[in-house]
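If you are new to this repository, start here. Below is one unmodified record pulled from the training split, so you can see the exact layout before writing a loader.
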Amino acid sequence: MPNDVLSVVKVEREQFLEALDAVWIIAEEDETKMVRMLVGEMLELKANVSGVGKANRLIDILDRHGEEFVTAFNCKYVLEAVKSIITNEITITFTGKLSPIVFRGTDDERNYRIVLPYRTEV
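And here is the target side for that same chain:
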């Protein structure tokens, strides 16, 4: 588990899943399946595949501690991770651009999934 936490964001699981599903429609057409996640006042998911199109979804943040951040990941892996966590809210822990992203259920600290980010210029 990563130790140096830069930011923790809490979102509603269903809203996050709906946004992931929406951007997945575009991202699945790309070899990398890449989606960018931008966290500021809101959480934004973006997919952009040349010749296919763009997708962009905004999600309300319930709580955020730490700094704003931008990261990119394989959308398929995050979809599978979040679907397997059965809870009303998800916390997303950002530990750095090249460090794992931790998705955790808010009702059980032991219920978490780790996804490695893409190394990009985001």
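Two things worth knowing about this chain: The chain has a mean pLDDT of 92. Strands lie at 7-12, 34-39, 43-49, 53-59, 63-66, 69-74, 89-94, 101-105, 112-115.
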